[in-house]
Amino acid sequence: MNLATGRVIVARVMLASMAMVTCMQATPVHAQRVDPDVRALRAIIEKPETEIDLARAKLTIDRIIDPAVDIEGTLAKLDAMAATVKALAGPRAKSSEITRVLRSYLYDAGPWNNQQPFRYDLEGDPLGHSISGKLLATYLRTRKGNCVSMPTLFVLLAQKLGLEATFAASPGHVFVKYRDETGRWYNLETTSGGYPRKDESYQRDTPMTPQALKNGIYLRPLSRKESVAAVMIGVLLDHYTNTGRPERVIAIADVALEHYPSDINAMLRKGYAYYLLLRDFRKKYPRPSDAPIEGRLLFQALELNNRLWYEKAEALGWREPDAGADARYQEIVKAAKPN
Q1: Cα Rg, the chain, nearest whole Å
Q2: Per-residue H/E/C for 274-337
Q3: What are phi and psi of 119, to 5 degrees?
Q4: Backbone dihedral region for residue 28 (phi beyond 0: left; psi -120 to 50: alpha; all else: beta)
Q5: How far does the signal peptide extend, from start to end residue (predicted)?
């Protein structure tokens, strides 16, 4: 899905619609708290930063998408995996040595993984669009993932091993940020073997503006709240977009943006949700002038909100991807060697 194609250019603005724009920019808090999904998300993201358990957060959000997700069973599996890595690394291993063992444990074939390493799903989901493929339980079962599930497993295991690791983003992509015992940060590309990649290679393959880098929307380590918002809630936003629930997308994007105001993906998904509402309106009223006055005001408010969220993203430095973006993305996941 290309969220950029959901942008509507607005030529006229009526003052009467501005009040409606204001009231539509966010779902009322009391209404959000009644929604079980929003309530579950707030229970996760409103905790103090140090109390957020990213593994439980990921599985709780995944379970909203797939009720068959076994949270406790999967947590036990993660604990067992971390224990195996710890044993392989040895009791006196440094942070960098544990990271090396973790990388090998996940991506090199050996007795520790029954000769079945984790791989990017190049055949079934080369562009990483599958919602199922972004779920942690699916990745653990199939050992085929994408740029959401793959860095997620690495980060969750790294944190259980006491490593300083988190998520970072480039346009349309998620990877791992890791800091070793010397205090040096590394980018680890889990979609192609967990090898380090330099910032410059991401800037080459997924171009980003200087403005975006200055505003910190790309290439920097995310906090736990930001990780929940951008990486985990982002999958839920994709799910509800794909299943035609734009109102729910807006309500959930509001939760993400409340705790991560520069969440580009939430802005784009919210803008696209307003596009979907506009599309539904046009099916009912091919000519907006045929709608009753309340409907015309609603139409203009939807147009303005659609434009607003794309403009907010652009103001932070986001730009629509060019024609070669998909090809460059596939090169990222095929490059299974360090730069």
Answers
A1: 21
A2: HHHHHHHHHHHCCCHHHCCHHHHHHHHHHHHHHHHHHHHHHHCCCCCCCCCHHHHHHHHHHCCC
A3: -135, 160
A4: beta
A5: 1-31
Q: What is the pTM of this model?
A: 0.89
pLDDT, position 142: 96
Tokens at residue 295, please? 């409907």
Q: Are the beta carbons of 105 and 82 closer than 8 angstroms?
A: no
Cα separations in angstroms, 39 against 46, 53, 186, 334: 10, 17, 35, 39
Concatenating the DSSP letter of every residue in 153-218 gives HHHHHHHHTT-EEEEEEETTEEEEEEE-TTS-EEEEEGGGTSEEE-HHHHHHHS---HHHHHTT-S
No. of helices (H) and no. of strands (E), the chain: 16, 6
Q: How far apart are the first and last CA of the chain?
A: 30
Average pLDDT in the chain: 89
Calpha distance 212→116 (Å, rounded) = 39
Q: Which two tokens stand for residue 119?
A: 């791989």
The span from the CA of 250 to the CA of 48, in Å, is 24
174 and 231 in contact (C-beta within 8 Å)? Answer: yes
Helix (H) / strand (E) element for 97: namely: helix 95-107
Q: Which tens digits make up the pLDDT trace of 104-134?
A: 999 999 999 999 999 999 888 888 889 999 9
Distance CA 301, CA 186 (A): 44
pLDDT of residue 337 exceeding 80: no
Q: Where are the domains of the chain?
A: 3-334
